[in-house]
Amino acid sequence: MTDFSDRHGLSVDSRLISFIEDRALPGTGVDAQKFWADFAALLTRFAPENAALLERREALQVQIDGWHIAREGQPHDAEAYQAFLYDIGYLVPEPVGFSVGTANVDPEIATMAGPQLVVPALNARFALNAANARWGSLYDALYGTDALDAPPARPGGYDADRGAAVIARAKAFLDEAAPLADGKWADWQGGQLTLADPSQWVGSKPGGILLKHNGLHIELAIDPDHPIGKTDPAGIADVILEAALTTIIDLEDSVAAVDGEDKILGYSNWLGLMRGDLTESFDKGGKTVTRAMVPDREWTSPEGTRFALHGRSVMFVRNVGHLMTTPMVRLPDGSEAPEGLCDAVITSLCALHDVKGLGELINSRAGGIYIVKPKQHGPEECAFTDRLFDAVEDMLGLRRHTIKVGVMDEERRTSANLAACIEAVKDRIVFINTGFLDRTGDEIHTSMRAGPMIPKGEMKASDWITAYEDRNVRIGLACGLSGKAQIGKGMWAMPDLMKAMLEAKIGHPKSGANTAWVPSPTAATLHALHYHAVDVFARQKEIAHETVPSLGRLLTIPVAHGRNWSEAEVRRELDNNCQGILGYVVRWIDQGVGCSKVPDIDDVGLMEDRATLRISSQALANWLLHGVCTAEQVDAALARMAAKVDAQNAGDPLYERLTPDGVAWQAARALIFEGVKQPSGYTEPLLHAYRQKKKAA
User: Fold this and answer.
1) Residue 561 reports pLDDT greater than 90
2) According to the UniProt entry, which residues carry Cysteine sulfenic acid (-SOH) (predicted)?
3) Fewer CB atoms inside 10 A, N or C side of the chain?
4) Listed residue (172, 169, 161) closest to 142, CA to CA
């Protein structure tokens, strides 16, 4: 039974009170009494406005549904549709040309280009791995994955043939990124190093040479006594790449946080990261291993000046969106407080330790607090976030715009009004990112009544997605983000398929995006190769004046016009979606795992989170609504796929088999059959309700 205590009219989970008063406030100079008084005042001010914004979402959706229903059976009139969206305020006029005014931003965000990790805040081990993934071994990344075009390593210890192929590939990379004045890296015998461009040699230390290319560092580990180094003519034991420049510590789609217990774990880990003292111990091979945050890296310049490079990824925290409330704080009327408001205050309080230099390590040398705000619908919601962050800054005694914001471009109303959204936060924005998974879920839900949607697998080839991705970069550049903020791209979801990632993901820097999401530290090291192959900031200048794809293309609705579905097509799509839903939900509900590698219907491991669940559940809800499939067919697919998911998880000792009377099965079924009426098609309300039911049992 959770204990609650009164704090200035708020009923607060006693565990949160202890965290705030015993751990988060001490040293910050913020008085506890004043904190709770200000927190209560902030909630009193912003909770009603938060509720009004959600009501506005629903009112717009009702109008859009009505428009489609009234025109059922008629050809889609794109011009009339766009005019209607302006009339109801879904679309707003483009702002007059402006440039963002964001200042005091760390170079990893503003002036460097490289990979970005996203990890669940509730998993300290994963968070530490990500924070420490700023530097990664290229030798290890090539040796241990399918990225290398060579036979896999033979079992039974180090495979010298595989190792030779790794070294050859790494030195070929050096030939491209930092060529020698004469000859190839494979021929370098050590001794005097003469580069074609001497300015690329930027540092040295005993056992190390530091190079720089496209703003990223490359470290050569020199150790003739190392098992690898002693076989190398120059004694090179490894090539270490600057990899994950930034990391998002996630309190949203990749976590299952449904109550005070869960939230406080996430806040606690974030505080530890901001103080630099987070550690995690675990068993590995029968031994206890303790992981901690790595220090900065010391070097000496060619001129003899000592300097340090940041040892860790610069960290953002992703708060939840505007939709959900949390039972850990109740307002004076007994209702739950908006979770996003609580996140804004508490994650900023934790980051105050970094701003004030209270911990052992520094995250932001520019003195910023970096918060990603997801699932915002249009510029009025972005403006609300801007005012909220103003209030948090005032509450914590921070100068204006200390709190920076990352805007996820993952909802249709935001995509269609992106410039206006950026303008609403123009003095604190440091990040826009396309989230095509959530964006697809919102595309289906917004146009739910327009007709049956094309299958999930065909969505990526839709014209609206191409327009969406291109518009994001070009609008970001037009608003002056280059050199001040990140323009990001989405996740590579297949962590075991690194060769395919290397072939496909170079498209992200080529598009002009200066960061993109990867699923692991190893993937970050490999993706870093793309930012050496492409000078992103030069690419941004090349495309800065290209035409922005039309709004009409973005608003193209992916309806399957006149399609006659075969029984096999319907069954395949039902099985595909039901398998994905069950495979994800069973871990979320039964184990509290918000993001993990889930085998798909073809047994390919995919990194799944709530965004992928949103697509699958909305796709089936849409097909049910329009009679493409029946409830009986969906239930039959759930039964077939439950058996498959059980088999795929047979090796997990924590796994609970799926049964129709189980909470996870009930949650999966509700996501489909109640999908039409879920707010914006989000999965959180149902997932939270069923997870709380599971925890209570």
Assistant:
1) no
2) 595
3) N
4) 169
Contacts of 640 (CB under 8 A, 6+ apart): 575, 578
Q: Mapping DSSP to helix (H, G, I), strand (E, B) and coil, where does residue 360 land?
A: coil
Strands across the sheet containing 325-330: 4-7, 10-13, 325-330, 336-338
Distance, in Å, from the CA atom of 643 to the CA atom of 637, rounded to the nearest integer, reads 10
The number of angstroms, rounded, from the C-alpha of 535 to the middle of its chain's C-alpha atoms is 23
Using alpha carbons, list the distances in angstroms from residue 614 to 117, 253, 560, 611, 618. Answer: 21, 11, 19, 5, 6
Burial of 21 (0-12, 13-18, 19+ CB in 10 A): middle
Sequence-ordered list of residues with C-beta below 8 angstroms from that of 418, at least 6 positions apart, any chain: 409, 432, 471, 472, 475, 476
Give tens-digit pLDDT for 494-524: 999 999 999 999 999 999 999 999 999 999 9
pLDDT recorded at residue 663: 98
Quote the CATH superfamily of domain 137-242.
Answer: Malate synthase G - maily-beta sub-domain (2.170.170.11)
Q: What is the mean pLDDT of residues 151-157?
A: 92
* The pTM of the whole model exceeds 0.90: yes
438 among annotated binding-site residues: yes
Local confidence band at 435 (pLDDT 50, 70, 90 cut-offs): confident
Report d(CA 512, CA 477) in Å as an integer.
Answer: 9
Mean pLDDT (whole number) for 233-243: 98
The reply to whether 519 sits in an annotated binding site is yes
Question: Taking the domains of the chain in order of start, what are their residue ranges?
Answer: 86-135+245-286+313-554, 137-242, 567-696
**CA–CA distance, 251 with 340 (Å, rounded to integer):** 10
Residue 321 carries which DSSP code? -
Question: Is 318 annotated to bind ligand?
Answer: yes
Is 125 annotated as contributing to ligand binding? yes
- Please state, in angstroms and rounded to a whole number, the distance separating the CA atoms of residues 357 and 588: 37
Judged against a pLDDT cut of 90, whether residue 284 lies above it is answered with no
pLDDT over 80 at 1, yes or no: no
Q: Is 394 in the active site?
A: no
Count of residues for the chain? 697
71 is in an annotated binding site: no
10 Å CB burial of residue 652 (0-12, 13-18, 19+) is exposed
3-state secondary structure 16-59: HHHHHHHHHCCCCCCCHHHHHHHHHHHHHHHHHHHHHHHHHHHH
Q: Is 598 part of any known ligand binding site? A: no
The mean pLDDT value for 91-110 works out to 97
Residue 33 pLDDT level (bands cut at 50, 70, 90)? very high
CA distance 454 to 438: 16
Give buried/exposed letters for 555-577 (b at 16+ CB in 10 A, else e). bbbbbbeeeeeeeeebbebbbbb
Q: Which of 275, 297, 318, 610 is catalytic?
A: 318
Angle, alpha carbons 535-536-541 (nearest 5°): 105
pLDDT band at 541 (very low <50, low <70, confident <90, very high): very high
Q: Pick the catalytic residue: 439, 609, 614, 691?
A: 609
86-135+245-286+313-554 has CATH 3.20.20.360 classification: yes
Annotated catalytic residue 223: no
Average pLDDT over residues 413-434: 98
Mean pLDDT of 259-284: 97
Strands (E), 95-233: 116-120, 135-137, 201-205, 208-213, 216-222
